[in-house]
Automatic annotation (TrEMBL):
Residues 106-284 form the D-isomer specific 2-hydroxyacid dehydrogenase NAD-binding domain. Belongs to the D-isomer specific 2-hydroxyacid dehydrogenase family. Pfam families: 2-Hacid_dh (PF00389), 2-Hacid_dh_C (PF02826). NCBIfam families: PRK06487.1. Keywords: NAD, Oxidoreductase. This is D-3-phosphoglycerate dehydrogenase. CDD domains: 2-Hacid_dh_4.
Length: 316
């Protein structure tokens, strides 16, 4: 049994040996370009990928390939229909980063509400040292308690963020799934937006959610509200977000995701002149515990496939 890991960089500081258990050959590449993938998977039974793309053409040519393990939840880098037609099983990882992402989202909310970045910068600039009183109160500080959080995407992650938000004393509203009817306990997005102090996104990027939060949606949010996106780039229209921040309609925003990652071609959200905007480099998921869970789940997936089990199997 031969296995190849096409892009291990995000896990390279961890012990990958559980993935190689029971294999006759184990090959690891830190990264693979699209042009390298076909050659590198040739003759292998198992391919492990994070973001390396497996196209229909590549899968058709991979005559030995029997199993694809995606070390992530998202499957947009694998042509699932081509895998199905070729009889290649596909497994992914699920729920591994709930704690990591949820704490990152709450951190972003707290940084926005406490104006942490502004106060830290002020201290570095020597403004506290020259203050006329014992403290600095140059930027308005808000408490989470009593404020309303709107959540779009109420799966495991959205539910965990709601739980933490309630612990801070926040009121939580849940939007109906885009493109679906309003169910019990949820309200239509256009009804929810005018009520929120903070909007947090946790839905996948689909045709229904692409540019879901556009200029029209942002205009429905109250003046002085906040937006947090730790879901996917493309759910928020980036140009519209910049406009809402520059106009002062939004008091602040934070995003862990961009439409292109890494943003080699630039991005309007990376302009340092955009006010009250926090950008983190798609690392909300990346706690050590979450990444160790990815390795453990992938090892389980390989074992499950060998035993004919369907644990986390997404393509039969």
């Amino acid at each position: 049994m031969r296995a190849v890991f096409l892009d291990s960089t995000s896990l390279d500081d961890l012990d990958l040996s559980p993935l190689a258990a029971g294999l006759d050959e184990w090959v690891v590449y830190p990264a693979s370009t699209p042009e390298q993938v076909a050659e590198r998977i040739d003759g292998f039974d198992i391919v492990i990928t994070n973001k390396a793309i497996l196209t229909a053409e590549t899968l058709t040519q991979a005559k030995s390939l029997k199993l694809i393990c995606v070390v992530a939840t998202g499957l947009n880098n694998v042509d699932l229909e081509a895998a199905r037609q070729a009889g290649i099983a596909v497994y992914n990882c699920q729920g591994y980063g709930t704690g990591s992402v949820a704490q990152h989202v709450m951190m972003l909310m707290l940084v926005l509400h406490t104006r942490f970045a502004d106060y830290h910068r002020a201290v570095q600039q020597g403004r506290w040292q020259h203050a006329e009183q014992f403290c600095l109160l140059d930027f308005p500080i808000l408490e989470l308690s009593g404020r309303t959080l709107g959540i779009v995407g109420y799966g495991e992650l959205g539910a965990r963020v709601a739980e933490l938000a309630r612990a801070f004393g926040m009121r939580v509203l849940i939007a109906a799934r885009p493109g679906s009817e309003v169910a019990s306990g949820r309200i239509a997005l256009e009804e929810m937006l005018p009520q929120v102090d903070v909007l947090s996104l946790h839905c996948p990027l689909t045709e229904q959610t692409r540019n879901l939060i556009d200029a029209a949606a942002l205009s429905l949010m109250p003046k002085g509200s906040f937006l947090v996106n730790a879901a996917r780039g493309g759910i928020v229209n980036e140009a519209a977000l910049v406009d809402a921040l520059r106009s002062g309609h939004l008091a602040g925003a934070a995003t862990d995701v961009l439409t292109q990652e890494p943003p080699r071609d630039g991005n309007p959200l990376l302009d340092p002149s955009v006010p009250n905007l926090l950008v983190t480099p798609h690392n909300a998921w990346g706690s050590r515990q979450a990444r160790e869970a990815i390795i453990a789940q992938t090892a389980e997936n390989i074992s499950a496939w060998k035993q004919g089990q369907s644990l986390r199997r997404v393509v039969p």
